[in-house]
């Protein structure tokens, strides 16, 4: 019986993956949410046209920005700077195609179309969210 237990324990230990630091961003936790944006409403109607973005607060960690790539394709990213823990100044502002962290200790900025860093010393890009469109409704979720 002890041999069977030992064998079982050894198999369980061998089947576990190591945590080598590639699990994702250590600063931003995964928060489950789902936001439905009706593009027939004035506050979201600009998403019907390529090159426009909308900021949605009170969803995700600090809100998200959604950008219309055109042809019913969208990108959506978390507005908390991905390169430090959320704090009182880590909510990014968006101007044009750039999201910028206002914290005085860094100068991180990111491209909102693909979430990649533009400036600063951070190693992480913006946290991406899932986007699906059905009719006039865009659903953003994590």
From TrEMBL:
Name assigned to this protein: Rieske domain-containing protein
Species this protein is from: Nonlabens marinus S1-08
Phylogenetic classification of the source organism: Bacteria, Pseudomonadati, Bacteroidota, Flavobacteriia, Flavobacteriales
């Amino acid at each position: 019986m002890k041999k069977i237990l030992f064998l079982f324990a050894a198999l369980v230990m061998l089947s576990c993956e190591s945590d080598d630091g590639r699990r994702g961003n250590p600063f931003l936790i995964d928060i489950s949410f789902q936001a439905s944006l009706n593009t027939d409403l004035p506050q979201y109607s600009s998403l019907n046209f390529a090159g426009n973005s909308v900021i949605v607060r009170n969803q995700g960690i600090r809100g998200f920005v959604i950008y219309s790539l055109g042809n019913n394709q969208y990108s959506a990213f978390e507005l908390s700077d991905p390169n430090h823990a959320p704090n009182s100044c880590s909510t990014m502002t968006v101007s044009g195609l750039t999201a910028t962290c206002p914290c005085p200790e860094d100068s991180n900025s990111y491209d909102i179309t693909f979430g990649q860093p533009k400036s600063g010393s951070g190693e992480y890009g913006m946290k991406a969210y899932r986007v699906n469109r059905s009719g006039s409704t865009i659903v953003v979720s994590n």
